[in-house]
């Protein structure tokens, strides 16, 4: 249905060694774009100088090479793009304000963090109560008085107050805080920005650009049309859609994939040292066991010595793969239809299978 050329991205954060869960995400992002004959860019999300390390960048590049996850063009590093993010933050000056709240104040005002939205199927670990907007409505005197204090730069989210009518451009004044999109895995999604933390930071008080701005600007400038990532960052999507709206740019399509959990249903993290790709590379010079294990979750069983083998296998055998995937409930069929998936294609199979896996996948690798 989509005549547009697919451009996807691999976007690791070099703040630790990549693990099996990252391999799962990046393999899916890569497969999804390559099944469309699309482009895949590599973007190193090394924006936080305190946490990013060159050794982790080097290890990630070795991991990708080992798995056979290739990319097009030159690697893009966020750490070298701060001037660009600053330029884009400046374009939003009608919507931004300095927030002087300390971390302690924010914590106290947010109360206990909610682990998930009522009625939501997803864990949203970063969601406390929405920012209370105190600093959005400081008087000019108050702002002048606090000017020397360190501040983060926050983005005002709708709804806008009557007193903001003279600063917020007319075309945005009445917009809704609800953002809807059709996720390629999860189907129709609607989030209110104020359920996702409300006014969010574009620049932290230590001057580091915050995640939402950098990601949105890069996705825009790199021409990304498809974002495949873990469903733990689902609530970032409405915030990024809001940024796209303010910049007047069409957002990419999103596919939020199930998270890989360990045998005790904990998220894979740095403490799972034995599941780091670096450790797995040392243990076995071939990535075949890892790839075969991950492909197994997709119902794909074969000899896969690199990522390209999985791609090729899907392209060559897709008719049989669909036929073998016999136990589709009426709900699956309805969901496929709703999401306008072309039945029978390898890409549709990938999204269909991911939807069937549910929110998480437990691993005993
Ligand atoms: Zn504040």
Short key terms for the protein model shown above:
12 strands, 365 residues, Rossmann fold, 14% strand, alpha/beta, binds zinc ion, 3-stranded antiparallel sheet, globular, 3-stranded parallel sheet
What does this entry look like structurally?
There is one protein chain. With 365 residues, this protein is of the alpha/beta class. It has one domain (1-365): Rossmann fold (3-Layer(aba) Sandwich), CATH 3.40.50.620. It is built from 13 helices and 12 strands. It has helices spanning 20-35, 54-67, 82-91, 103-110, 140-146, 170-173, 211-221, 236-247, 277-283, 288-297, 307-324, 330-338, 346-357, and strands spanning 7-10, 39-44, 76-77, 96-99, 152-155, 178-183, 187-192, 200-203, 226-230, 253-257, 259-261, 360-362. The strands form 5 sheets. Strands 1-2-3 form a 3-stranded parallel beta sheet, covered by helices on one side. Strands 4-5-8 form a 3-stranded antiparallel beta sheet. α1 (20-35) crosses α11. The longest helix is centred in the last third of the chain and has 18 residues, at 307-324. The chain is globular. The structure holds zinc ion (ZN). Zinc ion is lined by residues 99-101, 134-135.
Give a brief description.
This protein is an alpha/beta fold and 365 residues long.
How are the SSEs ordered, and which strands pair?
Blueprint: E1 7-10, H1 20-35, E2 39-44, H2 54-67, E3 76-77, H3 82-91, E4 96-99, H4 103-110, H5 140-146, E5 152-155, H6 170-173, E6 178-183, E7 187-192, E8 200-203, H7 211-221, E9 226-230, H8 236-247, E10 253-257, E11 259-261, H9 277-283, H10 288-297, H11 307-324, H12 330-338, H13 346-357, E12 360-362
Parallel strand pairs: 1-2, 2-3, 9-10, 11-12
Antiparallel strand pairs: 4-5, 5-8, 6-7
């Amino acid at each position: 249905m989509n005549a547009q050329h697919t451009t996807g991205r691999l976007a690791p954060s070099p703040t630790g060694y990549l693990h099996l869960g990252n391999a799962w995400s990046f393999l899916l992002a890569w497969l999804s774009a390559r099944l469309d004959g699309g482009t895949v860019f590599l973007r190193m999300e090394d924006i936080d100088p305190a946490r990013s390390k060159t050794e982790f960048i080097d290890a990630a590049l070795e991991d990708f090479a080992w798995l056979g996850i290739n990319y097009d063009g030159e690697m893009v590093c966020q750490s070298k793009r701060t001037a660009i993010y600053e330029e884009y933050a400046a374009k939003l000056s009608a919507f931004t304000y300095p927030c002087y709240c300390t971390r302690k104040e924010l914590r106290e005002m947010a109360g206990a963090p909610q682990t998930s939205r009522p009625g939501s199927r997803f864990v949203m670990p970063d969601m406390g109560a929405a920012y209370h907007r105190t600093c959005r409505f400081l008087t000019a005197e108050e702002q002048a008085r606090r000017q020397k204090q360190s501040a983060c730069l926050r983005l005002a989210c709708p709804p806008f107050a009557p007193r903001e009518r003279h600063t917020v451009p007319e075309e945005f004044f009445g917009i809704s805080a609800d953002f809807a999109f059709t996720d390629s895995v999860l189907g129709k999604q609607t989030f209110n920005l104020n359920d996702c933390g409300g006014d969010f930071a574009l620049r932290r008080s230590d001057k580091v650009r915050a995640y939402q701005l950098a990601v949105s600007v890069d996705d825009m400038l790199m021409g990304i049309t498809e974002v495949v990532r873990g469903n733990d960052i689902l609530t970032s999507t409405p915030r990024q859609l809001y940024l796209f709206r303010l910049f007047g740019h069409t957002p990419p399509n999103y596919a939020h994939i199930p998270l890989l959990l360990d045998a005790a249903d904990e998220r894979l993290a740095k403490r799972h040292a034995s599941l780091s790709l670096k450790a797995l590379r040392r243990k076995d010079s071939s990535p075949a066991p890892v790839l075969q294990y991950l492909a197994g979750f997709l119902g794909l069983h074969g000899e896969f010595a690199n990522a390209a083998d999985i791609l090729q296998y899907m392209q060559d055998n897709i008719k049989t793969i669909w036929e073998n995937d016999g136990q589709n409930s009426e709900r699956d069929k309805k969901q496929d239809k709703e999401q306008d998936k072309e039945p029978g294609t390898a890409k549709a199979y990938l999204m269909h299978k991911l939807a069937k896996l549910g929110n998480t996948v437990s691993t005993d690798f």
